[in-house]
């Protein structure tokens, strides 16, 4: 290499280094590829949904260490659920297509819920301790069959 070549390389070296650094740290985007899920764990968690108007069995399970109060809006007075206890009821159908369940900890602690669909016509609501205050306070079966936690 000649002295002139080394001089030109040294002049452009900072620009080459910056360009290389930018190139190496930039995220590369890959095109999306559609396909089917081979395993349930590769697809992520699907939202819980039922056929609109379908009668379903609802299980509410108290997995906390304290008493939880439960009330089906426009259907029951508040019910107490002891730790470990399960309350079961049937809801839905053509005359009552959606429903709401509100719940609260008897001593005011925040709660969170885990919504599961163990069978085609069964909704399992697991009431757990924790969550950010005020926590989860209700579960609502919407007219379109989707389940929302509020």
Tell me the CATH topology of one domain. Answer: Immunoglobulin-like
Strand order of the largest sheet: 3-2-5-8-9
Share in helix: 10-25%
Give the SSE string: HEEEEEEEEE
Features:
Immunoglobulin-like; 9 strands; elongated; alpha+beta; 150 residues
Description:
The chain is an alpha+beta fold. It has a domain at 56-149: Immunoglobulin-like, CATH 2.60.40. Helix content is 15%, strand content 35%. It has one helix at residues 3-25; strands at residues 56-62, 68-72, 79-81, 86-91, 99-105, 111-119, 122-129, 138-141, 147-149. The chain has a five-stranded antiparallel beta sheet with strand order 3-2-5-8-9, with no helix packed on it. 12% of the residues are buried.
Offer a concise description of the structure.
With 150 residues, the protein is of the alpha+beta class. The chain has one helix at residues 3-25; strands spanning 56-62, 68-72, 79-81, 86-91, 99-105, 111-119, 122-129, 138-141, 147-149. The protein has a domain at 56-149: Immunoglobulin-like.
């Amino acid at each position: 290499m000649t002295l002139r070549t080394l001089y030109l390389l040294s002049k452009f070296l900072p620009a080459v280094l910056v360009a290389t650094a930018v190139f190496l740290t930039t995220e590369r985007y890959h095109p999306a590829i559609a396909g089917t899920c081979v395993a349930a764990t590769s697809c992520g968690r699907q939202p819980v949904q039922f056929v609109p108007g379908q009668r379903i069995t609802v299980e509410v399970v108290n997995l906390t260490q304290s008493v939880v109060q439960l009330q089906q809006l426009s259907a029951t007075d508040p019910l107490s659920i002891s730790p470990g206890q399960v309350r079961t009821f049937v809801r839905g159908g053509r005359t009552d297509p959606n429903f709401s369940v509100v719940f609260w900890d008897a001593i005011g602690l925040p709660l969170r819920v885990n919504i599961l669909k163990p069978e085609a016509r069964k909704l399992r609501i697991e009431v757990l301790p924790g969550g950010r205050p005020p926590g989860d306070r209700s579960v609502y079966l919407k007219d379109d069959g989707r389940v929302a936690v509020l």
